[in-house]
Amino acid sequence: MKTTFNLEKYFWDVNFKNLDVKAHKKYILERILEMGDEQAVKWMEKNFSKEDTLEVLKKSRQISPKSRNFWNLVFTK
Question: If you ran DSSP here, which 8-state letter would residue 12 be given?
């Protein structure tokens, strides 16, 4: 996965170079929604649809209730 800034810090437990945006969409979205900074969120919004993001928010068990509530407020305005 190529980026213009350091997203690698959110994926310390995998080989970052092997992450594929399409194949690992859920995993990438979970990490950014739970731990991402403003720059990571901007990258996420450019690379994933709002529908993809809302689907992960709805189904993921990896996102904390606090984060889920925050992002639901942000994305359902």
Answer: T
